[in-house]
Amino acid sequence: MEWNVQHGEPDTRRVTSMDPANLDLAKLVGAASAPVALIISTSIFLSNLTSKYVPSFARLRTLAEEIRSNPDDASRVRSLREQIELYNRRVRWLLRAAFFLATALLFFITTVAFTSISVVFPGQAVWAIITGGSMFGGLAFLALAVVIEMWENHLGKHALRSELGDGTPPLHR
Asked: Where in the sequence is the domain holding 96, given as residue range(s)?
């Protein structure tokens, strides 16, 4: 960073070149560690959603097959149609949440990249602004995915009620 000799403060008007000898590797690694932790935790959350999607989709297919194989029991078919609609909604919400998590991951990866750039080229506000915007975008998409996953969990209660409703033999104690 260049110093303004007249005022004794940093001169941010001049673009400074990167000097590898002045690169603070500890600062670079430290600045990137928080977004990297967010990348890891968001990836785990995405894996969790994927592990919910696969059995939900399989259940949807099983319910559809049950209707095709036994269309004569009207009360059971009604219950199955309700369950199919609920599982269909749940799968669509899980896919939306996965999309928003993947978008959050892209924002967090961008945050790491621009954090590194801002450490390598200090004193240039544009990198800090892009870094902050990327972090905020990633957090916003992560929060949206969490809310969607909460909604999908709520829909699971309705699927369970429908499963144990019409057309299901009574459970004995």
From this structure: 24-163
Into how many domains does the chain fold?
1
HSE at residue 4, side-chain half, CA atoms within 13 A, is 9
Q: What is the pTM of this model?
A: 0.71
User: In the chain, helix, strand, coil percent, each to 5?
Assistant: 75, 0, 20
Closest by alpha carbon to 140, among 103, 114, 91, 109?
A: 103
User: Does residue 3 belong to any structural domain of this protein?
Assistant: no
173 residues of the chain, pLDDT tens digit each: 454 556 556 555 554 555 555 556 566 666 667 788 889 999 999 999 999 889 989 999 999 999 888 888 887 888 888 889 999 999 999 999 999 999 999 999 999 889 888 877 777 889 889 989 999 999 999 999 999 999 998 888 777 777 776 656 665 65
What's 167's DSSP letter? T
Could you tell me if residue 16 is inside a domain?
no
Q: Is residue 41 part of a domain?
A: yes
